[in-house]
Design brief:
This protein has 19 helices and 21 strands. It is α/β, with parallel strands linked by helices. It has a twelve-stranded mixed β-sheet, sandwiched between helices. Strands 3-2-1-4-5 form a five-stranded parallel β-sheet, sandwiched between helices. Helix 1 packs parallel to helix 9, helix 11 packs antiparallel against helix 16 and helix 13 runs parallel beside helix 14. The relative contact order is 0.07.
Length: 533
């Protein structure tokens, strides 16, 4: 293996570079070439360096825009040591070999994350010399070691010690591959940023995304499928920020349910105590209580305690000891995941008694709604992806009571809640909601049916099965799209609904309105469909 004798050090992020360079020079007697800011840091702290401008006999130009773009630098990195013609050219033009390039890039993504950064400031944060050097080193990795991130410093030192000043072929290859991943992400960030500067509201002709693996999952949707979770490198926040405090490794299906639960909690906000229980990404029971977290948990659980088995439970405020007691003391109930911003210490100790239950703390996630929904929603299909905005806009576009019977303020709040629930249930969906003195809760949810009348009937049958037959009386119902025929409305009213909300928009709306007036119930058109496939 080739010994490292001459290195070039030029970094924007200077964390650890002084100690790294001192160790290399002291233990392995390497010659160090360096640029302005990095060179000053090293030389002012006892590291002997040769300035790039002295090495190339060419000054830094244009306020530092041109420093390393020189044949003596790029040639020293790129020439192949085992090619006679390359060696001959290097000797002819007096180009010594550079054996290692230590370089990280201007922090472009960090700069543009500040909304006050101007276009001219962003352009100055587009690195040119750094990418040129690390790409050259990566291309010529059999002869040159590239170190593109400070996280590799200790690994490099240890391997140099182990191999008497040399770096193995496998490490060189790994670092080279890392360079091109870094460059793909870097270039994607620049291209996507410049796209935002173009006054075009259409989706771009080319969509560039880069992702980094967070973890493998236990398996995919099924046991014989491999799977992993990757974070979107263009997104400031995401599920990767959630802290697991207890339980088994998170599975592929868990991630899908966690995502749905988080989005429901984002929709319902932080004002009151919210509990959401999900199964297979659809809500199984949701409740809002103005005063008490335990009450909201009990009400959400009461919607369908059978289907809550193996579900995902989420609350929007710190989970209390009494709620933890309620959860662990339910007989024959297995919970896959329990989520909260935080947990009382005693509550966490209680929940940890369930060794397999995944306990997740999501911190201030609910404060990040606008930032999270700046991203695009991507769904894979065979050979490509579908792209859309997240459905994060208000569920009420126009509040239009189209029936003779009006609605009270209490009914209005319950209708909006029922419509939000129906939004998160797989379409076609229907959600019956009842109010009580300090809140409201679901009493029957139907989801994923091919016809609107059948999803209403499914929601009713589940409500009756779990003891809500009388509670259906004077309930309200939300459904995620219009009624194509009056039969769905009739089924809801027959079960006890006194008010119904949907977006309207059917060619038979007049017939549906006429039926609502005939049955003396309130019908609200809100003007926004909330399908979820």
């Amino acid at each position: 293996m080739k010994k490292i004798e001459r290195i070039l050090v030029s970094v924007f992020d200077k964390s650890g570079v002084l100690e790294f360079s001192k160790t290399l020079q002291k233990e392995f007697n390497v010659e160090i070439l360096s640029t302005g800011g990095t060179g000053n840091l090293l030389s002012n702290n006892g590291v002997t360096i040769t300035k790039i401008s002295e090495y190339t006999e060419s000054p830094e130009m244009f306020n530092g825009r041109v420093k390393t773009l020189h044949p003596k630098i790029e040639g020293g990195i790129l020439y192949r040591r085992d090619k006679e013609a390359d060696v001959s050219d290097a000797e002819k033009y007096n180009i010594p070999p550079i054996d290692m390039v230590v370089c990280n890039l201007y922090q472009f993504k960090e700069a543009i994350s500040d909304p006050n950064t101007s276009l001219s400031q962003a352009l100055e944060m587009i690195d040119i010399g750094g990418p040129t050097m690390i790409r050259a080193a990566a291309k010529n990795f059999p002869d040159v070691v590239v170190v593109p991130d400070s996280k590799y410093y200790s690994e490099i030192i240890n391997e140099l010690r182990e191999h008497n000043g040399s770096i193995s072929e496998s490490t060189r290859l790994k670092l080279a591959q890392e360079v091109f991943l870094i460059m793909a992400d870097y270039n994607a960030a620049i291209a996507n940023y410049l796209q935002t500067q173009i006054n075009d509201k259409n989706f771009p002709a080319k969509l560039i995304k880069s992702f980094k693996k967070v973890s493998d999952t236990r398996y995919g949707e099924n046991w014989d499928q491999m799977a992993a979770f990757y974070k979107d490198l263009s997104s400031k926040y995401g599920l990767q920020d959630i802290e697991q405090l207890n339980g088994k490794q998170i599975s592929f299906n868990n991630y899908l349910d966690i995502d749905s639960c988080m989005q429901i909690l984002l929709d319902l906000g932080k004002e009151n105590y919210v509990t959401a229980i999900l199964k297979h990404t659809s809500p199984n029971g949701i409740a809002i209580d103005k005063k008490n977290q335990l009450k909201s948990v009990e009400k959400a659980f009461s919607t369908d305690p059978l289907s809550a088995f193996g579900g995902i439970w989420g609350v929007n405020k710190e989970l209390t000891e009494e709620v933890a007691d309620f959860i662990v003391n339910q007989e024959n109930i297995f919970i896959e995941v329990i989520m909260a911003p935080s947990f009382e210490k005693k509550a966490l100790n209680i929940l940890k008694k369930k060794e397999n239950m995944r306990v997740l703390a999501y911190g201030d996630f609910l404060d990040k709604r606008e930032e999270l929904y700046r991203n695009l929603e991507l769904r894979s299909v065979l050979g490509g992806i579908l792209v859309q905005e997240y459905d994060h806009k208000p569920v009420i576009k126009d509040w239009n009571v189209v029936s003779n019977r009006n609605v009270s303020q209490e009914e209005k709040e319950a209708l909006i809640f029922s419509y939000k629930v129906s939004k998160w249930a797989k379409s076609n969906s229907a959600a019956f909601v009842q109010t009580y003195d300090t809140g409201m809760y679901t009493i029957g949810i139907g989801a994923g049916q091919q016809s609107r009348v059948h999803v209403v009937k499914l929601a009713v049958s589940k409500a009756i099965e779990f003891g809500h037959k009388e509670t259906l009386k004077d309930s309200v119902m939300g459904t995620d799209s219009f009624f194509p025929f009056p039969d769905g409305l009739e089924a809801a009213v027959s079960a006890g609904a006194k008010a119904i909300i949907n977006p309207g928009g059917s060619i038979r709306d007049d017939i549906v309105i006429e039926k609502a007036n005939e049955l003396d119930i309130s019908l609200v058109f809100c003007g926004k469909r909330v399908f979820r496939h």
